């Protein structure tokens, strides 16, 4: 038997990895927009504040919030 190292990324299923990647991207975008770090994963807050922000990643952020809210249900 080979001695293999596994990472956390290897242990989670692809669906979970995809969700985590969406949250990571949303976090990165919202930080760039100037949103407080404590609110970057609050989907309800982001849903209300994003339409009022003028930023070139605004549409992507809104799309990610919509997708993550659907997953959460």
What's this, in brief?
This protein is an all-alpha fold.
- Count of β-strands: 0
SSE sequence, one letter per element: HHHH
Give the mean pLDDT: 88
Strand content: under 5%
Q: How does the helix and strand content classify structurally?
A: mainly alpha
Shape: elongated
Largest sheet: none
Tally of contiguous helical segments: 4
Describe this structure in words.
This protein has 73 residues and is an all-alpha fold. The protein has one domain (13-72). Helix content is 63%, strand content 0%. It contains four helices and no strands. The chain has helices at 8-11, 14-33, 43-49, 58-72. α2 packs antiparallel against α4. 12% of the residues are buried. The mean pLDDT is 88.
How would the blueprint of this fold be written?
Layout: H1 8-11, H2 14-33, H3 43-49, H4 58-72
Helix pairs in contact: 2-4
List keywords for this structure.
73 residues, 4 helices, 63% helix
């Amino acid at each position: 038997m080979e001695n293999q190292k596994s990472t956390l990324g290897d242990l989670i299923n692809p669906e979970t990895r995809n969700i985590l990647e969406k949250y990571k991207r949303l976090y990165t975008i919202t930080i760039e927009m100037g949103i407080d770090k404590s609110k970057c994963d609050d989907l309800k807050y982001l849903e209300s504040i994003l339409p009022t922000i003028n930023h070139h990643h605004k549409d992507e952020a809104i799309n990610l919030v919509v997708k993550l809210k659907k997953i959460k249900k």
